[in-house]
Design brief:
heterodimer; A: mainly alpha; globular; B: mainly alpha
């Protein structure tokens, strides 16, 4: 018994099958409760007014925007080293989800920034780093789409993902370096002030809800990829016969 | 005269790039033209041009390097010479290193040499020109090394030029940031040693990573 037995597609399908519905259910309940709590039950912030409620979406989305890429990098590394197809497919399945979270983080950030900072966009280190992240996702997905042979596409995108994760880190620090020369932290997104207790519980709830949603949609997408792969090999067999 | 296979490969690729149709000179012409377009678009005010000169030169260098990446492996992949090189007793990592060096000799090096002329045209003060040349010399190899990874990944994709740019440009961001900061620091009269160190370190890191990552991608594509 080792963790690698889950890398067998059939085993992966069998084990994840009963997990999908409860995960969707839990994510839906937590999202509903979290949204209701954070929008209806929290007070307005003394500085930000009701605009603060955007952050209940923005913060979990931004967390997942970064962490999804970490998931992809780990899956790609495991795939390349241990030659597990499920790993590649999980990385592939995660990419559009991560890109969507990145887009949500950027858009909600802009909507929040307009009334708070008086501008839709600031060339702040964090904002810029997240924007760059979005292009890493785009490149990864474009490569999967461009290479016809799925085996090759899997390996090449894994190489790209691992090179990308190194350069995403480098970009993050380069951008920090770049922003410090240009402007002070007057408009930094860094939440220097602590989060008030009234906001903390619903925020945690939303973060957990977003993660559950992420795992649920990742499993569904990975299962779809496995089925698509199986359908493809069946078609090839039929064509050969 | 017995020549090492490594030197022979560098020589071959450099010659191919320099001769008619190789595209080496065209890449440099693109670099110059891209820089010349900037004052036409931005205006000819001395202070503005000097302020943006470093960034403009680096962005132009990025694009020129990017556009010349397809000749790194593409032609050899299509006519089968890459397969021959893979069968050669020389490790593929060394082949990649030789081809990348040849790429830099025909893009990064001439861009470095012509950069002070363009810098002066962009009203960069004479005091900032040495820093510009040093930054280009230290940073442009990173463009070739990082670009080689992208070129190796996309070598099997038909009409992969657009794909290549979307893969490689995000990877170029650290080089751009540090390279342009060197010029900016020199312009402001600050010490450039720290940023130069970061830029040089980035190039060395890319040089260490690129042959292995590119060779891995080429092997996957050759399967």
């Amino acid at each position: 018994m080792s963790i690698w037995r889950y890398a067998n597609p059939a085993e992966f399908m069998r084990i994840t099958d009963p997990l999908v519905a409860p995960l969707w259910g839990a994510a839906a309940v937590l999202l509903a409760v979290g949204l209701w709590w954070s929008v209806a039950l929290t007070p307005d912030d003394y500085q930000q007014g009701s605009t603060v409620k955007i952050l209940f979406i923005h913060v979990p989305a931004a967390m997942l925007a970064i962490n999804t890429y970490a998931v992809m990098a780990v899956a790609s590394g495991v795939g390349l080293i241990r030659r597990h197809h499920v790993s590649f497919l999980v990385a592939k399945a995660a990419a559009p989800v991560g890109a969507a979270f990145t887009a949500i983080a950027l858009i909600t950030g802009a909507v929040w920034g307009q009334p708070m900072w008086g501008t839709w966009w600031v060339w702040d280190a964090r904002l810029t780093a997240v924007l760059i992240m979005f292009f890493f996702y785009l490149g990864y997905m474009a490569l999967w789409a461009a290479v016809e042979e799925p085996e090759k596409a899997a390996d090449l995108s894994a190489v790209l993902c691992l090179v990308g994760v190194v350069f995403a880190f480098l970009s993050r620090y380069a951008v920090n370096f770049w922003a410090t020369l240009h402007q002070g932290a007057s408009l930094s997104v860094a939440e220097g002030q602590r989060v008030d207790d009234a906001f903390r519980t619903p925020l945690y709830l939303m973060i957990v809800a977003f993660y559950l949603f992420f795992v649920a949609i990742l499993l569904v997408r990975a299962r779809t990829e496995i089925r698509a792969r199986r359908a493809r090999s069946l078609r090839l067999q039929e064509a050969r016969a | 005269m017995v020549r090492s296979p490594f030197a022979a490969l560098v020589r071959r690729d450099t010659r191919l790039a320099l001769r008619l149709g190789g595209g080496g000179a065209v890449g440099i012409a693109f670099f110059v033209l891209a820089v010349v377009l900037i004052p036409l678009g931005v205006g000819r005010e001395t202070a503005t041009l000097a302020r943006i000169a470093g960034g403009v030169l680096w962005v132009a260098a990025l694009l020129a390097a990017l556009l010349s990446l397809d000749r790194l492996f593409q032609a050899d992949y299509e006519d089968g010479s890459l397969d021959q090189l893979m069968l050669a007793p020389m490790p593929l990592e060394q082949v990649v290193l030789a081809k990348t060096i040849a790429h830099w000799l025909t893009t990064g090096l001439p861009m470095t040499l012509i950069a002070p002329v363009l810098g002066a045209m962009l009203q960069l003060p004479d005091t900032a020109l040495p820093a510009l040349v040093l930054a280009m010399a230290a940073g442009t190899p990173a463009l070739s090394f990082i670009g080689a990874i992208g070129a190796a990944i996309t070598v099997g994709v038909r009409r992969g030029g657009l794909l290549l740019s979307i893969l490689v440009l995000p990877l170029y961001i650290p080089t751009l940031v540090f390279g342009a900061r060197v010029v900016e620091h020199a312009l402001l009269g600050l010490s450039t040693a720290g940023v130069m160190g970061l830029l040089g370190g980035l190039t060395l890191f890319a040089a260490a990573l690129s042959p292995f990552a590119s060779a891995l991608a080429l092997r996957i594509n050759a399967r």
